[in-house]
Amino acid sequence: MAASWLLVFSLTLFQSLVMNLSSEGPFPSATTIKSWVDKMQVDLVTLARSASGVDELAKIYTKYSDLYTVEANNARDLVEIAASSIEKLLSNRSKALVLHSVFILLLTGHFTPYFSHLQCK
Asked: Which residues make Cβ contacts (< 8 Å) with residue 18, sequence separation at least 6?
């Protein structure tokens, strides 16, 4: 909420500066406009940082740094492991769906197994 008030205040200040300067004299110089743009940029960065919570995240990271470790990893290996795991899960799911379908067809009598001509004793 404070961040939105900061933005409103900055924009209002900017508007009042433009209105006052333009009503009193010639168009503001490039240096003046550049300083306004720099101020607006600082205000927008401040607003974005407070709205996104990145500063709070940095504080939490620092406060609890003793509870975790940060290690380098090989992104290619991680992707390969994830892809392999996904392939296995999909394969198992496909097998389960086929078995489920066969089971349902056997129960309903709509499926005749390959060895149905043999009689069991």
From this structure: 28, 36
The separation between the first and the last C-alpha atoms of the chain, rounded to the nearest angstrom, is 81
- pTM of the entire predicted model: 0.36
Indicate the pLDDT class of residue 106, thresholds 50, 70 and 90: confident
Q: How many percent of the chain have pLDDT more than 70?
A: 71
With tokens 């009193």, the residue in question is 24
Which residue, among 43, 38, 35, 45, has the nearest Cα to 10 in the 3D structure?
43
DSSP string covering the chain: -HHHHHHHHHHHHHHHHHHHHHHHSSPPPHHHHHHHHHHHHHHHHHHHHHHHTHHHHHHHHHHTGGG-------HHHHHHHHHHHHHHHHHHHHHHHHHHHHHHHHHHT----TTTTSPP-
